[in-house]
């Protein structure tokens, strides 16, 4: 009996998502204790969550009862934070779950999803799992701005959803409201992923009541330090909330995550101070990396910085036209690894983890999460050594 034959054929060949590894695994690999590891690969919050979260979780006594399928307390609390009626709000087990749910709601087999790389890998991943077809419209060389005319040109009768991350991961730039307005005019579902909103302050959430095709996704993973509890939310047109409510897993938000969000929102000044610390450190990290003199840094409105090795990015840089040349020089040279990948590996040996992407366009780049000031210092000293 060949069970493989029973699997949806398009899934047997699909590439999986390349996730980051837990600290314990990184520690074993480098033979360092978890405390000896500088983890700058997951855009996680170096200050952790609010101490009120631990208190609230410890004080709660009804973990044996199922959570509220309608997420009432949570959506009510978010009403104030988001500045929008709870009728527009729905939570997911991480915003990753909402990406999947939105695609499940809109995609029929063969329907198309527009993706603007380099960007977050979960959009093509979930689109493929949901039976959709991913249409890539790469961001523009050098600036990583959206190719608006390219996107509009790619829209056809099969196009259902357009994904835009703002700030974008891994390029850290935002899109302008006027660009989103143009995308909304296509009449397709436009998902604006604002996972890093708290670090940028830029949002289009207030447009949702007047635009039936706009969805804004947010998360507690980054700014509130709750990545391990998996909790995100979306701001949707009311109609879409009602449909998603019907198709989601009834108990998708676990009780611990609900408690953690309520405790976080009740301790918002503490969390905002940490966001301010990270934003200040982003500036300092940028300056220190720039002083090295051999990195091209992209301005960041998130909690990470994309930096690329100078010799490639300063010529005609990244793009479709130069893609072949880029991968020639950077990656495929007799299977040799790129300089950035070498640096990434050398940093790992010192217990410093940053993110490297195995894509031709980012072959000479690293994404570095903003950590504490001491993390910046350790990283910069190590970079002086490796190069
Ligand atoms: C981290 C990240 C997410 C995932 O958030 P979760 O709520 O942890 O699932 C979503 N979008 C982007 C762009 C991200 O970088």
List the SSEs and their pairings:
Blueprint: H1 9-12, H2 23-30, E1 38-40, H3 51-59, H4 72-82, E2 89-92, H5 95-106, E3 112-115, H6 122-129, E4 133-136, H7 148-154, E5 159-165, H8 177-184, E6 189-193, H9 197-200, E7 214-219, E8 232-235, H10 238-247, H11 255-265, H12 268-292, E9 295-297, E10 304-309, H13 310-313, H14 320-332, H15 339-349, E11 352-354, E12 365-369, H16 373-386
Parallel strand pairs: 1-11, 3-4, 3-5, 5-6, 6-7
Antiparallel strand pairs: 2-8, 7-8, 9-10, 10-12
Helix pairs in contact: 3-11, 4-11, 5-6, 12-16
The site of pyridoxal-5'-phosphate has 13 residues, from helix 5.
What keywords describe this structure?
three-stranded antiparallel sheet; alpha/beta; binds pyridoxal-5'-phosphate; 387 residues; seven-stranded mixed sheet; 2 domains; single chain; Aspartate Aminotransferase, domain 1; Aspartate Aminotransferase, domain 2
Radius of gyration: 21 Å
Average of the residue pLDDT scores = 93
Per the CATH scheme, the topology name of the largest domain is: Aspartate Aminotransferase, domain 2
- Total count of helical runs of at least 4 residues: 16
Residue runs with pLDDT of under 50 for 5 or more positions: 315-332
Q: Can you identify the CATH class of the largest domain? A: Alpha Beta
Helix content: 40-55%
Give the distance, in angstroms, between the N- and C-terminal Cα atoms: 54 Å
Q: How many structural units, i.e. domains?
A: 2
Assembly level: single chain
Question: Bound compounds, please?
Answer: pyridoxal-5'-phosphate
- Could you tell me the number of beta strands? 12
Q: How would you write the strand order of the largest sheet?
A: 2-8-7-6-5-3-4
């Amino acid at each position: 009996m060949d069970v493989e034959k029973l699997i949806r054929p398009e899934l047997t060949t699909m590439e999986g998502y390349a996730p980051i590894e837990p600290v314990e695994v990184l520690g074993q690999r480098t033979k360092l204790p978890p405390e000896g590891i500088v983890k700058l690969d997951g855009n996680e919050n170096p200050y952790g969550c609010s101490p009120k979260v631990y208190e609230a979780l410890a004080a709660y006594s009804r973990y044996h009862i199922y959570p509220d399928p309608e997420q009432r307390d949570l959506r009510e609390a978010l009403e104030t934070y988001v500045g929008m009626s709870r009728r527009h709000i729905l939570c997911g087990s991480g915003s990753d779950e909402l990406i999947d749910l939105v695609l499940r709601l809109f995609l029929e087999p063969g329907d198309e999803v527009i993706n603007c790389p380099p960007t977050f890998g979960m959009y093509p991943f979930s689109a493929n799992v949901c039976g959709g077809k991913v249409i890539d419209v790469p961001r523009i060389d050098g600036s990583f701005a959206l190719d608006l005319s390219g996107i509009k040109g790619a829209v056809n009768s099969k196009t259902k959803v357009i994904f835009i991350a703002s700030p974008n991961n891994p390029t850290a730039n935002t899109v302008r409201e006027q660009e989103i307005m143009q995308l909304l005019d296509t009449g397709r579902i436009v998902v604006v992923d604002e996972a890093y909103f708290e670090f940028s302050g830029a949002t289009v959430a207030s447009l949702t009541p007047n635009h039936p095709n706009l969805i804004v996704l947010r998360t507690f993973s980054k700014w509130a330090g709750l990545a391990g509890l998996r909790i995100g939310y979306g701001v949707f047109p009311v109609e879409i909330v009602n449909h998603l409510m019907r198709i989601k897993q009834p108990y998708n938000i676990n009780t611990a995550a609900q408690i953690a969000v309520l405790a976080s929102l009740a301790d918002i000044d503490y969390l905002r101070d940490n966001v301010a610390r990270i934003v200040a450190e982003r500036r300092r990290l940028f300056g220190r990396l720039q002083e090295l003199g051999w990195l091209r840094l992209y301005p960041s409105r998130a909690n990470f910085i994309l930096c690329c090795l100078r010799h490639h990015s300063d010529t005609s840089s990244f793009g479709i036209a130069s893609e072949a040349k880029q991968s020639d020089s950077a990656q495929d040279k007799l299977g040799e690894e790129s300089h950035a990948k070498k640096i990434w590996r050398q940093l790992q040996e010192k217990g410093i983890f940053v993110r490297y992407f195995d894509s031709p366009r980012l072959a000479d780049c690293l994404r570095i999460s903003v950590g504490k000031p001491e993390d910046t210092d350790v990283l910069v000293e190590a970079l002086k050594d490796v190069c």
